[in-house]
């Protein structure tokens, strides 16, 4: 994260309830042999559908019913179970691009649905609007009924991928310059979110931090304060400025200059230099800490935020909380893609060696200053940083009551 332009104000928030600073220890990717993975039970009429999924190190979801038998066996301990509608909320988190997708959780099959005409189509990414062949009238009627009774899940999203579209809580996008996630594909372009309208006290917050992106990408001879394209196109999440960014960001302002303890206990490297050298670890630390400290918190500021944002900013509301968790999942996915597609100076490499972290101490700040939060790092053997990120997200969903672990057989 990093200090970006936003409203200036004193913090106005209640301290979060006491909880474990790091959360549960991240799980290993479990790949032991065992009995076959159980199939999802047949659902009774009107029973909300559920889905079993896993999350890979690139923050991509995989549905159990679509995995091959060998893959299911390899990852039989990595699946978790969720209400399908809540999973759709999680998966849509942070996205400003439009979608006309309807999804069958039982089979994993997607359809393109034209709500205006009421027609379903085979889902085909190579076709305009993802509309492949239209389904026949009998199947179309059955799909409409399934959508009505909830066994088919509406995963559609309004297309807000425009610079004139107001930013909403949790929106993910590049900072001040449009970004093609796949450089040669115009359809992969995400519009920048800095300078766009917002009727709430927001900051477009870099993850990893903007200054660490600059340090990774400044060329010899460039001014030490030069803003690089990596910074301008850096992945940001729209969060409340005072009640989230200033209060809980580990890279807000002078926090970037702190010297944290490395795995050997040495305090020789500033946080921003650590982040420039270990961007995947930095993403894990910043996103995990912010999600920890905002759990069950009401981030709505009645003096600065428009009334329609009252529910979306209340982290005690399940859909709002899932949306923010989903935003950081999506930010991680975009970071992984641009690192792979554009180069090592962008995003982060999920295959990097893993670190975990512990906030070691917190010292209160003075007037108009914010709490100092000390961090120590630990090496995590036999895992990649991407695995640590995905495992901690899976554990969060389970521990916050949104998901259930699938029993090991």
Automatic annotation (TrEMBL):
Signal peptide segment: none
Basic and acidic residues biased stretches: 152-168, 177-192, 270-281
Biased composition (Polar residues): 39-49, 62-72, 136-149
Coiled-coil zones: none
Protein name per UniProt: Uncharacterized protein
UniProt-annotated stretches for the region Disordered: 1-80, 91-110, 120-229, 252-281, 295-315, 343-367
